[in-house]
Amino acid sequence: ETGVTQSPTHLIKTRGQQVTLRCSSQSGHNTVSWYQQALGQGPQFIFQYYREEENGRGNFPPRFSGLQFPNYSSELNVNALELDDSALYLCASSFEPMVAEQYFGPGTRLTVT
Amino acid sequence: SQELEQSPQSLIVQEGKNLTINCTSSKTLYGLYWYKQKYGEGLIFLMMLQKGGEEKSHEKITAKLDEKKQQSSLHITASQPSHAGIYLCGADPYSGGGADGLTFGKGTHLIIQP
Fold first, then answer.
1. In CA terms, which of A77, A100, B24, B110 is 20 to 30 Å from B55?
2. Spatial distance between the Cα atoms of A110 and A93, rounded to a whole number of angstroms
3. Which of A47, A88, A100 lies at the smallest CB-CB distance from B40?
4. Closest-approach residue (CA) in chain A for B31
């Protein structure tokens, strides 16, 4: 059984640029949730995708967008990067939108300069 | 919106000692989740509690949810270096949730001294 994987591991971008982060869900899981974790903080929910549709969204602006593909892998896109977007981005997959069964990936560390 | 406060923020414990981490919610908890995180890495699911008064144990870690479902504690017995990390509590904002994600506390940094 393959766990949740994320790419890239680390990324450095300049303010104003755009970035795409990728997540491969655990085998058999059709739901992916994305979280942002700033340094010293707990993760904050960005949005969730279930069967290729956005299924819920946290308090993040529209420049945070996502996609889920037929194989249930997912992308997180952030446009017009700001310094405050520097964080660890975590994705979690689950079988159906059941929070209790979420399995987290190792995260992507994004630094915006 | 629901807020979770964890205490203490950090904890240094001598190997072999017991310790307790607390998580207090501003609202009734429908589901309380404990995760462990190594610095800069993903979260590892530890336990989920849903019923008032519920208690669960796994190896040397015990988690409890109080009767009023607003406070949870995580207790580690005979701590080991492998217990070091960041412990996060997360709350399911609605019963039967999922689509709204979890609300997390800021975490408790646990350091085990040999």
1. B110
2. 20
3. A88
4. A100
Half-sphere exposure of A38 (CA within 13 A, CB side): 10
Burial of B14 (0-12, 13-18, 19+ CB in 10 A): exposed
Q: Which residue, among B45, B92, B100, would best test binding to A if mutated, counting the most A CBs under 10 Å from its CB?
A: B100
Other C-beta atoms lying within 10 Å of the C-beta of residue A50: 19
pLDDT tier for residue B95 given thresholds of 50, 70 and 90: low
CB contact (8 A) between residue B107 and residue A96: no
Asked if the C-beta of B97 comes within 8 angstroms of chain A's C-beta atoms, the answer is: yes
Using the structure block, give the residue that is written with the tokens 């209790």.
Answer: A100
With a cut of 80, say whether residue B73 has pLDDT above it: yes
Q: What is the mean pLDDT of chain A?
A: 93
* Dihedral angle, C-alpha A51, A53, A55, A56, nearest 10 °: 140
Residue type, position B41, single letter: E
Tokens at B72, concatenated: 């949870």
Residue whose token pair is 């995760």: B35
CA proximity to B108, closest of A43, A40, A109, A91 = A40
- What are the CA-CA distances from residue B6 to residues A47, B72, B76, B80 (Å)? 24, 10, 16, 21
Sequential DSSP letters for A47-80? EEEETTEEEEE-S--TTEEEEE-TTS-EEEEE-S
Encoded amino acid at B88, one letter: L
d(CA A88, CA A110): 6
How confident is the model at residue B29, as a pLDDT?
83
Asked if B31 and B18 touch (Cβ cutoff 8 Å), the reply is no
